[in-house]
Amino acid sequence: MNIEMSSEENKEKNKDDIPFTKFQILKNLVAISCGFLFIFIPFQSITNLQSTLNKEDGLGTGGLAIIYGALVISCMFLPSFVISHLGCKWTIAASMVCYLLYMAANFHAVWSLIVPASVIIGLGSAPLWSAKCSYLTRMAIRYAHLTNSSAHHVMSRFFGFFFMVYQTCEIWGNIISSQVLSDEVEDNFTLTTYELRKCGANYDPGIQMNNTNLDRPNNSKVHILCWIYMASVTFGFLIIVLFLQNIPGNNEDKQQEGKLLPSLMVETFKHLWKSPYQKLLVILTIYSGVEQAFIAGDFTKSYISCAIGIGNVGFVMISYGIVNAICSLSFGKLMMYVGQIPLFAFAFVVHGGTQTALLPQQEPVYIIYIFAGLWGIGDAVIQAQINALYGFLFKDNLEPAFSNYRLFEAIGFLIAFAWSNFLKTYVKLYICLGLLTVGIGMYGIVEMLERTNKKKGME
């Protein structure tokens, strides 16, 4: 078996030999992680606030739905095409400019500005994340060759480190928002017991509530946030430009340079059609988008803003970010010893239990912090391990595979933000539970098929 693995790894090395040393690979890992951190400090923070900050006419969640609608389209057409022409580094850098435009649009949040800005950031997101996934996967494969390690284990560690750094954006972004908006809380926290019961799982976005906790902060504070966010995006862009080494698209990408965009969409769906693993992972990937959208849009509005005010959104989500960051790194290392199956099973128990516990009426304030932390534990497993799983299963076809990943994750975001203004919170929780259960079950089938194929290969 070791001889067969060595032969396979040599083939992979010849196919994608990146002339970087171990130090250069680790430096690039830190650079790409920090670049994404400074881009998503503002984006994650403003996403958490959108459902309350721009709640009039559904502008906040409507804009987020447009982002992920554009992302669905982008996943079909752009990633392989852009990466093949620009390489991973410059694809990431160019895509980051889209985030700067979106932050600028929030200075004066109206439909005429938010819609085009949301379309632009949605179109840029698919190449951004596909380039990141491709870059980390290829770096991990190269590092595994240099250290005679398992490529699967190195991928898990690299993605674990990336998501550890990335998830701290929830901490820093929410510290910023909570400090800027914190003095809104004292004047707003005036809920009666009857009004409090309308929050949490019972929150109905279709009913107009006389709840001052949901009032928008004054414009001067919003503008301060936007200036800070734009500075953060600019700094992240400079990190990528100055410190990340470029690698070109792989050989398959180079062959696609002259193709028309529709043919690239065909490649993405051809991968979906031909790969049984990809089809089985669709529901879990959609759940990945739905659960992130729920914590950012519905949890923040139904459980935090409604009950204790928008100024406390940052404080609660800091607990989510801290736990998520710690677990992303810890579980990446733990996977080497226990494998992915126990981690996904653990995520199922934690997320399923948390969603069930959120179904009763509004809980005391301290429980909200605990639920946010528990959600972060499950999300840490799901984000890092799904990325590592895709990188391992589809390492011979990375860009189409990760385009499918972003496509179905974006569909999850899209449907979650689209229903945000129509469904009661408890209905959304039941949908989350259903998707989680089916998704984990289908992932289990993938593991069984993979083990069967490995046994056949050894015979």
From TrEMBL:
Keywords: Membrane, Transmembrane, Transmembrane helix
GO MF term set: potassium channel regulator activity
Any single Gene Ontology cellular-component annotation: striated muscle dense body
GO biological process, one term: regulation of muscle contraction
A Pfam entry, by short name: UNC-93
Annotated localization: Membrane
Transmembrane parts of this sequence: 25-43, 63-83, 90-111, 117-137, 222-244, 280-296, 302-322, 334-354, 366-393, 405-422, 428-446
Keyword Transmembrane helix: yes
Residues making up the signal peptide according to the UniProt record: none
Topology of the protein relative to the lipid bilayer: Multi-pass membrane protein
Annotated protein name in UniProt: Protein unc-93 homolog A,UNC93-like protein
Taxonomic source organism: Mytilus coruscus (Sea mussel)
